[in-house]
Amino acid sequence: MTGASAQRVADTDETSAQLFCRIGEFLRDNHLSPDPLHYAFAYRVLTDTHGPLARAVAHLTDGGVCLSRRDIENLGGEIGALAPPTPTEQMVRARSDGLVAQTQMQVEGFTDMVLAMRAETEGFGRDLAASADAILHSHDKLAHDTLGSETLDVDEVVRITTRMLDRVRTAETRLEAATHEATELRARLEEARDNARRDPLTDLPNRRAFEEAYAAQVATGIPVCVAVCDIDHFKRVNDRFGHMIGDRVLKAIGEALRLGCEGHLVARYGGEEFAVLFTGIPRDVAMAMLENTRETVAGKRYRLRESDEPLGAVTFSAGLTGAAADEQFGTVFARADALLYAAKHAGRNRGKIG
Q1: pTM for the complete prediction?
Q2: Which one is catalytic: 272, 295, 309, 327?
């Protein structure tokens, strides 16, 4: 190999190694798992640093904002089955799987109990018919026989009646147990349904619940406004203090929005993003509630309870828009999301209405 060829190989190896390191840093900075789909997206961004995709990513991540799964999807990236679930998603799946398994067992047990009750009822019906015939037969004999001859077999009537009463008590016991099983089953199904629509970290409704609520409200014809809120510089909090503190910040902002927008639906839409569904009030009134909440949050100075170290100001930006009659959720959300990013581009810790 000539000296020039060797140098080209060395330069290529060095360039590849640098690109590999830059891709790793990109994935780490945005908290993306190192699966092939995320790697391919990072490769597209970093191999064309002046292209439209790289410029869009630079705009979205300006100021330390992490890319979300929705950002990657909107920019043409794919989030497929290879991407491993987050710890939160794993916890939700585990709880849901457990509830499904328990519910399935209860359904099977309830079915067996109903079948047993049916068999018991059929047997009781046969015995009741036989007892009625026997009593009627004895009564006929008593009516036609002379005094002192064959009389009604009282012991037989007592025996039949006792057996009938035992069957009734057994059926009542089984029915009580079946009713209890049905009540438990209904409660577990409600729990499973609620868990599927609730964020386990903040205990707020999740994206699925929010979108279902939007569809239900729009169908009634009641005026609806949608706000999208995003914590400013949230990546800096995670990088400096760790994800445990980041989770506390998420809870605090979620609680502040819930209290500040009381009477309206507040959901954790994903990552550091929250959404608010205002119903039955004008846009300016909804914006006033949102602004009051934003100012309240911005006025607080958070500290770490372990060390009393100041966390500093935590703020969020927001975009709010009204929904026209029968307007699709995706259209409304995209408009609110664009207003959110306009607020961030204008300096953060502010809201935009449109």
Answers
A1: 0.55
A2: 272
